[in-house]
Amino acid sequence: MSEDRLTKVQKEVDEVKNIMGDNIDKVIDRGEKLENLEERSTQLNENSYQFKKGATKLKRNMCMQNLKLTLIIAMIVIIIILIIVLAAVYS
């Protein structure tokens, strides 16, 4: 009878050891996943900063291009008005 008890206790101990081993493996896997998540988060943060920086530069360039185009059109309109006024004065 004591051997049956001993065998039963040994099986329970083995079962607990297996469960604890599985738990340790899960904790290790979780730690690795957290490290990967942290790396991905850092990379995403860096990429978003670069995107914002590039978008700001592009916006500034487009505003300058728009300003140049507006100035060119304004100059052309002024020249046309001057030509019309001069033609009217000298005719």
Automatic annotation (TrEMBL):
Annotated protein name in UniProt: Vamp (Vesicle associated membrane protein)
GO biological process: protein transport; vesicle-mediated transport
Matches recorded under PROSITE patterns: V_SNARE (PS50892)
Main localization category: membrane
Membrane-topology descriptor: Single-pass type IV membrane protein
Keywords: Coiled coil, Membrane, Protein transport, Transmembrane, Transmembrane helix, Transport
InterPro entries reported for this sequence: Synaptobrevin-like, Synaptobrevin/VAMP, V_SNARE_CC
Stretches that traverse the bilayer: 69-90
